[in-house]
Amino acid sequence: MIEIKHLCKTFPTSEGEFHALKDINLTIEDGAVFGIVGMSGAGKSTLVRCLNLLERPTSGQVVVDGKDLCALSQGELIAQRRSISMIFQQFNLLMQRTCLKNVCFPMEIAGVKEAQARARAMELLETVGLPDKAESYPVQLSGGQRQRVAIARSLASNPKILLCDEATSALDPKTTRDILRLIKDINRRLGITVVVITHEMAVVEEICTHVAILDHGVMMETGRVEEVFSNPKTEAGRRLVYPDGVVIDRLSAARVVRIVFNGGSSYEPLIASLAIDCGVKVNILGADTRNIDGQAFGSMLLGLPQDPQEAAKAVGYLKNQPNVTMEEVRDYHG
Amino acid sequence: MDKFLTDLGEVFSNPKYLEEFAAGTWETLYSTVLATVLAYLIGLVLAVLLVAGEEGGVRPLPTVMMKGLNVLINILRSVPFLILMLFVLPLSMLILGTQIGTAASIPPLVVAAAPFVARLLETSLREMDRGVLEAAQSMGCTPFQIVWKVMLPECLPGLASNFTTAFITILGYGAMAGAIGGGGLGRIAMNYGYHRNNLAVCLVATVLIVILVQIAQSAGSYAVARMDRRSRSVPKRRGRKKSA
Q1: Among the CATH numbers 3.40.50.150, 3.30.43.10, 1.10.3720.10, 1.25.40.80, which is that of B2-243?
Q2: Strand A33-37 and strand A193-198: pairing?
Q3: ipTM greater than 0.90, yes or no?
Q4: What's the confidence (pLDDT) of residue B241?
């Protein structure tokens, strides 16, 4: 379990102190795939670097399995880091070593015998699907393959925690999915706790069980992915979950409402039944809907009819739907 | 012109000259190699200290120490080589018991070249990808492991390429050392060419130095290309096996 308590990080700059992280509190349970999302500059990378003390917090605690990392001696910290692996956006492989030697590296520095390390490295390369690239150099591999080697390397020290710092941001969409699937698989099979830093909500949807939203160094909200995604409570959360806001038709709607699906419901039947049951036709102004673990989440922006009576009927109907929340959008500008 | 041609004929026909040139080439080679290796080792240690010891480096050292090191290197680099050599010659006396000859020129060469080599290698080490260093730290490398197992091997092509540069520079320094009692091709060029106005000998000695430089550069570039794994176009071990 990782507990972050009142974590603050400030950097001195020429214009005074820059507060990168402000009083962050977070608990990450064992076995979770925890996403930390935010726009660039939100402090995500700084936060994840505090989890293995690549960045030393200005104040606060990072407690991993009951041990406060900041209180460890240099030697103890080095030992602790061997159980917290990290993968990076730019892969950060050793370019002068073969893939096999890259995977051997964490074992080499930990003093594992060479023959043993090689055998284990081969196994790991098989795990990530690249046994035939053992003697290749990283430059000969594609981005996705390099990240696979990096993942194999990160597993070499039998870590309990895997930190992913924008691990798929340099990859194309298909490779991204493959890598995410691999990470998810590792999480399930080996029970490794995964912390994913990303600015892409799609990554969170794909693999995370929990999510925290970070904005300008402040943790805005946190919880299970489906909770946060179905109904983001903060402005920062909404910006991230519905980045494009709404895509719009011109229309003459007097009132606009946003309905949010909280899972268990689907979209078309609702709009259809609204028409059938109430005889009210609404205009779909925009929709951003997602499918998470087989359940429907997302939001839809509806333009209600001009007629106040019909509009009221529609509002009443929508309010009574299970798994749907509705709010009036007052500052809507088509 | 007549004198030059006669002298040139003499250079190639008189075995005394051939012997002289052979000995000179050998002296130049061994003093340069020895001085380069020593200056390189000292320079490498200094470069690692400069890069790893700075604020935010792998193993930050006290600021006072880093400032002192920088100032010392800058001072040694700014003193003209010939003057520095004269200052350091007593060191040769101390170590080797003589101030004249090929061996005696080695300590001054090392002292003069080491700070230059340090700056050269410092730039090579600074090319190190910070992300890779971060990855190494995250894996629990000690500062020594980072230097020994990450920085040096990853920067190997740059470091090796700068070995060639150091070698060629020191070869040039060594030729200058010929003016103040050092041995080798530089001395031959000075003694015959300058002091006895024998331009032919001077020319041949110079050509030999040029050839040495060319060989060193080609060999160095070839070796660097062989050890650089960062580019796809380089001949790889597998490629060699296939053709064998």
Answers
A1: 1.10.3720.10
A2: parallel
A3: no
A4: 41
